[in-house]
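Q: I'm building a small set of examples for a reading group on sequence design. Run inverse folding on the following structure and report the sequence directly after it, with nothing in between.
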């Protein structure tokens, strides 16, 4: 766990450092759909979204709620900090909670990281990796999510 915290701190410093050469602001608000795959999970349909909360110099703070539909309904609610790597490339890193409505109703901590890629004027591809620390089974779960989102 300590190694994960150190790695998260280093990645966060990289995101903030990359934001010093800002070419354009990261996308503020979007909603879209895509898929989730993972090591211990079935494939799921994902409704993804992003809401910018505030700007912080050359970075911004956002919340990225998502709903996943597989065998059960799952929810993700991370808080992220994002910056600009290059025009149209916006990396982010954050932490939050994962909820799985599988009867256990566990609310588990998670860390997330990814990148928003502007593919067209009004569309962003969000590619993210989540690590969920499952409390009920003392295990970690890793999932990969890719979505196509409409900017508004």
């Amino acid at each position: 766990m300590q190694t994960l915290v150190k790695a998260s701190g280093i990645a966060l410093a990289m995101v903030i450092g990359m934001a010093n050469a800002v070419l354009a602001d990261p996308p503020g608000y979007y909603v879209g759909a895509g898929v989730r795959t993972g090591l211990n999970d079935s494939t799921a349909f994902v409704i993804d979204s992003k809401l910018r909360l505030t700007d912080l110099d050359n970075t911004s703070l956002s919340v990225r709620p998502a709903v996943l539909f597989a065998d059960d309904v799952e929810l993700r609610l991370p808080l992220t900090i994002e910056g600009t790597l290059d025009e149209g490339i916006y990396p982010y890193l954050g932490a939050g909670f994962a909820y799985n409505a599988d009867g256990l109703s566990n609310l588990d901590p998670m860390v997330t990281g990814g990148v928003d890629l502007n593919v067209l004027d009004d569309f962003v591809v969000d590619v993210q990796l989540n690590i969920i620390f499952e409390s009920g089974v003392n295990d970690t779960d890793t999932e990969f999510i890719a979505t196509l989102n409409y900017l508004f």
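DSSP finds one helix and nine strands in the chain.
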